[in-house]
Amino acid sequence: MPRKNAQRSGSPLYWSAESWAFISFRLFLSLLMLTAGLGKFKNQEGDYSFSAYYNGVVNWIVSTFEKTDLPGFLVSLYAYSIGYLEILLGLLLLLGVKTKWVLALIALTLVSLAYGQMLLGTQESGTAVSQISIYLLVTAAALYFVRHNKFESLR
């Protein structure tokens, strides 16, 4: 009889609420990061291309943050890497690779995005900071529930 219960505990039907909460946060955040990263490569026609990223997003980020006190080389480095970073973090989280560390990197990425919006100081950036803060809270909740992770490829 105990053997049967042990088999049942591995089934998703018998997962705890915490395990379901974590898998929900994990799926949400991985899809959020993938969508945000891939969206940076999308052009006006709806096609994905590197030119859309480099000529559109990178140029926009660099020109927008010229007015701030951030050094130009850091802004360029960030602009060229943020799309790839979001895709990579989204994939790693979806696949369950080093989940706790990937969530921590997502949190730091969200903080950096919010900080950039704070530096701009426009009314639209205030709205963006509020939205990023909600994503940051979801990430913090996922980090809290990470010990209930049921699927992890590499620890």
Structural key phrases:
mainly alpha; 155 residues; DoxX family membrane protein; 0% strand; 6 helices
Task: Offer a quick outline of the entry.
The chain has 155 residues and is mainly α. The protein is 74% helix and 0% strand.
Task: Explain what this protein looks like in three dimensions.
The protein is mostly helical. The protein is built from 6 helices and no strands.
Topology summary:
Layout: H1 2-9, H2 17-39, H3 50-64, H4 72-95, H5 99-120, H6 123-145
Distance between the termini: 32 Å
Helix content: over 70%
| Overall average residue pLDDT | 88
Low-confidence stretches: none
Instruction: Spell the H/E element sequence.
Output: HHHHHH
What would the principal axes of the Cα set say about the shape? Answer: globular
Rg (C-alpha, Å): 19 Å
Tell me the major beta sheet: none
What is the count of β-strands? 0
Structural class: mainly alpha
Sheet-strand content, in percent, reads under 5%
Quaternary structure classification: single chain
When the domains are counted, the total is: 1
Number of helical stretches of at least 4 residues:
6
